[in-house]
């Protein structure tokens, strides 16, 4: 198997002292970031990007660090869901449904252990899925020309809102807004300035890192300011791990089916365009409830209701890396942030990455296997240490998050203009989240808008302006059909994903998207 | 109502965007599509979506009370001032005030807020500047 020998080479890349250390740091930080409500995968990874830059990390160590944070968040989110009934981040929302009742029954230790093991199984299987599926996708993607890429971007935007957003018009609007923002700056092909209105700072375009940190991290601070006092918040309730820290064999056997099913559903949800870990955990829980809730004990502290969504969100995190790495088209907020970091390091994910920089891809995948084992150790025997971070009150945490966001942005450019842009994006992000316009399509628009235009114009140049060239190959026709179907079907079928009723609106709003 | 206002604003923004797209100069190097076409398409999509939001609004979101809105406005002003003053006063002083302000508004007592501001500011300085070597804004006293 070619993939296996590449993977073996990847282990050669990952098994250096520096990379192992970064994977460890990433896993550790990720678990904390995931556990703390208000910090989640997308803003946690976003504010760490400048750190990766200033440390002068090359692409491989940088992506290992940040992806380990992403994986770590998927483990960490459950801790506050189980102990406090507050989702640590959006993907952990479903874990509150049975995790918190288990903790109320004095089984917090078992709930944490089962969910930790489920997280491990989910990530482990999903990383294997990544090993085999990504190269297959690459062989298809190598056949892509500009027309196919244009259709692929269209598909990404069309399906982004689909499964999770309430209102397709708002998702499309968000994408258009993002692509519009990407248009600002000097046009790469003809050299004329666009939408700069004479402002020199805008000639370079709007830095996507500034937009990302603003939309994801600063907006979060505003949400907390708005909801001060309305929410119980961590640090105010008792955080105590009750019960056995290792589950009994019977409980493991009882939940193993749920873990397996959750993993498969989560991985598929992760690979699909426009779906991240939140949807993965939602679908895994919903399916498991249908499948095995015979005595109606779901929602009352059934361990299977903890195992399924946790396996699901970890598996989707691995799955979501497949389109990001193989096609360069992320489907969720955090993978968009990871893409942003690679782009900022002049590495363009996509099929060519696998041929030109195989060390980046396979080093990352190998590091994920290693990180996953580290995470299992951190999240089973050492769980009590991480539960303690929940004692940090929001009134100390959020100022630090805000200030680190500013430091991050200032650290990249050293310009006060960027801080102003950051604040503007922060307010915009808060406003959009209030009125239920998703922010992920905005970020994706800013990131991919220019490539989308470049591919369109390249195809038009090749075809001499003939618009039919866009739907000239079987691959592009399929992509167009999926794009249109993915946009129209949710309008017809209605919203799939719902928010669990036990999580307050303020908590749900503040839960950081994945 | 919010959605109706937001939708109309987006339609106006789209109109402005399309107008601005027509103002883009054409250069002598050009391709069949040119630099104007794609932004115009995006502007049209934005306008259409705005129109849909305007005509089919969602239920009203839960807007905070006026006091909380002012809270957010005040924080925005503090952040903007932070950005402007950073090159003048340096990282430690600015971050002390901004961090302390936020801690105070998030529920700290004034003494606690001073401690939180100092802790945030010095903590970030030590970790990011002294240990990791990130360059932070320098003020009149060299920090």
From TrEMBL, chain A:
The chain crosses the membrane at residues 20-39, 45-71, 111-131, 137-157, 169-186, 206-225, 264-287, 324-348, 360-387, 407-432, 477-496. InterPro entries: DUF112_TM. Residues 20-444 form the DUF112 domain. Keywords: Membrane, Transmembrane, Transmembrane helix. This is Tripartite tricarboxylate transporter permease.
UniProtKB/TrEMBL annotation, chain B:
Keywords: Membrane, Transmembrane, Transmembrane helix. Pfam families: TctB. The keyword Membrane applies. Residues 5-136 form the DUF1468 domain. The chain crosses the membrane at residues 37-54, 114-137. This is Tripartite tricarboxylate transporter TctB family protein.
């Amino acid at each position: 198997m070619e993939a296996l020998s590449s993977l073996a080479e990847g282990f050669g890349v990952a098994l250096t002292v520096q990379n192992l250390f970064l994977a460890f740091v990433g896993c550790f930080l990720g678990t904390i970031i995931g556990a703390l409500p208000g910090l989640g995968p997308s803003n946690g990874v976003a504010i760490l990007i400048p750190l990766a830059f200033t440390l002068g990390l090359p692409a491989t160590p940088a992506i290992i660090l940040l992806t380990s944070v992403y994986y770590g968040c998927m483990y960490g989110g459950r801790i506050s869901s189980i102990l406090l009934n507050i989702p640590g981040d959006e993907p952990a929302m479903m874990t509150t449904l049975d995790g918190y009742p288990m903790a109320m029954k004095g089984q917090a230790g078992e709930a944490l252990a089962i969910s930790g093991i489920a997280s491990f199984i989910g990530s482990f299987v999903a990383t294997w899925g990544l090993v085999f599926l990504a190269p297959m996708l690459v062989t298809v993607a190598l056949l892509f020309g500009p027309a196919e890429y244009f259709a692929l971007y269209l598909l990404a935007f069309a399906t982004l809102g689909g499964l999770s957003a309430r209102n397709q018009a708002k998702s499309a609007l968000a994408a258009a807004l993002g692509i519009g923002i990407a248009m600002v700056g000097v046009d790469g092909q003809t050299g004329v300035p666009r939408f700069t209105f004479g402002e020199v700072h805008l000639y370079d375009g709007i830095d996507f890192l500034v937009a990302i940190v603003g939309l994801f991290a600063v907006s979060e601070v505003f949400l907390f300011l708005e909801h001060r006092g309305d929410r119980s918040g961590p640090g105010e309730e008792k955080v105590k791990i009750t019960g056995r820290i290792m589950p009994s064999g019977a409980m493991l056997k009882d939940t193993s089916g749920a873990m397996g099913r959750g993993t498969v559903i989560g991985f598929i949800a992760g690979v699909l365009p426009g779906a991240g870990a939140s949807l993965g955990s939602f679908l895994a829980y919903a399916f498991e409830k249908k499948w095995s809730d015979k005595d109606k004990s779901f929602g009352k502290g059934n361990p299977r209701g903890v195992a399924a969504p946790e396996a699901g969100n970890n598996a989707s995190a691995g799955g979501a890396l497949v389109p990001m790495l193989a096609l360069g088209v992320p489907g969720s907020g955090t993978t968009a942030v990871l893409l942003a970091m690679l782009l900022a390091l002049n590495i363009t994910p996509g099929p060519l990455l696998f041929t030109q920089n195989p060390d980046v891809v396979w080093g990352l995948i190998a590091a994920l296997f290693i990180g996953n084992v580290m995470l299992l150790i951190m999240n089973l025997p050492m769980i009590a240490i991480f539960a303690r971070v929940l004692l940090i009150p929001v009134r100390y945490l959020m100022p630090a998050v805000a200030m680190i966001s500013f430091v991050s942005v200032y650290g990249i450019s050293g310009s006060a203009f960027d801080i102003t842009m950051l604040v503007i994006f922060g307010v915009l992000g808060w406003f959009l989240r209030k009125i239920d316009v998703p922010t992920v399509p905005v970020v994706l628009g800013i990131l991919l808008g220019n490539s989308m235009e470049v591919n369109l114009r390249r195809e038009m140049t090749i075809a001499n302006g003939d618009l039919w060239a866009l739907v000239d190959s079987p691959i592009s026709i399929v992509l167009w059909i999926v794009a249109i179907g993915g946009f129209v079907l949710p309008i017809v079928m209605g919203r799939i994903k719902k928010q669990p009723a036990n999580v307050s609106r303020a908590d749900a709003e503040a839960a950081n998207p994945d | 109502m919010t959605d109706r206002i937001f939708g109309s604003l987006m339609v106006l923004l789209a109109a402005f965007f399309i107008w601005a797209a027509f103002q883009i100069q054409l250069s002598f190097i050009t391709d069949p599509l040119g630099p104007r076409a794609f932004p115009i398409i995006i502007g049209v999509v934005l306008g259409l979506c705005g129109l849909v939001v305007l005509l089919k609004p969602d239920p009203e979101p839960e807007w905070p009370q006026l006091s909380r809105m002012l809270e957010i406005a005040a924080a925005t002003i503090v952040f903007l001032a932070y950005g402007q003053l950073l090159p003048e006063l340096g990282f430690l002083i600015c971050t002390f005030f901004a961090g302390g302000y936020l801690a105070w508004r998030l529920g700290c007592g004034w003494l606690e807020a001073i401690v939180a501001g100092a802790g945030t500011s010095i903590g970030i300085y030590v970790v990011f500047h002294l240990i990791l070597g990130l360059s932070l804004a320098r003020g009149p006293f060299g920090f």
